[in-house]
Amino acid sequence: MTQAQALFRAGQQFEKTWEVDAAALSLNYGGDMDVLATPVIVYWIESYATECIRRAGDGSCRSVGQAVSVKHVAPAHPGSAVRLTLTVQAMFGNALRFDARAVAARDGSLIATGTHDRALIGT
User: Fold this and answer.
1) Ramachandran region of residue 77, left (φ > 0), alpha (ψ -120 to 50) or beta?
2) Cα 5 from Cα 68, distance rounded (Å)
């Protein structure tokens, strides 16, 4: 079993930018407004954390989500870009916790914060 400390270090950061397209809007998720949906933010956090783990393990390490917590504090409108930063907060055995921060790529204004825990599965 892979130990998180073998692949990551506390404070390590990863960044990725997404565009708020039509599929990411809250109207598709039962919401009332034409803005970025909270479930999409959760998806971005989980999928990007998975990608970071896969890359760190040279494709041989997989992971499963254990917990996610998100506070969505401001809207992002269609066509805007959102920059997600994941920071390795803690490692415990074969698991790790990422801090997540999503900001408007244009001006850096905060859109969402949260944490995400994943357990490493693999060699």
Assistant:
1) beta
2) 21
pLDDT digits (tens, 9 = 90+) for 74-108: 999 999 999 999 999 999 999 999 999 999 999 99
Token pair of 44 as six digits: 């971005």
Hunting for tokens 């995400």 — which residue is that?
116
Query: Which H, E and C letters describe 80-122, residue by residue?
Result: CEEEEEEEEEEEECCEEEEEEEEEECCCCCEEEEEEEEEEEEE
Token pair for 83: 């920059």
Cβ atoms of 83 and 94 closer than 8 Å: no
What are 1-59's pLDDT values in tens digits?
A: 568 888 999 999 999 999 999 999 999 999 999 999 999 999 999 999 999 999 998 88
Phi/psi at 53 (5° precision):
-65, -45
- DSSP sequence for 47-89: HHHHHHHHHHTTT-EEEEEEEEEEEE-S---TT-EEEEEEEEE
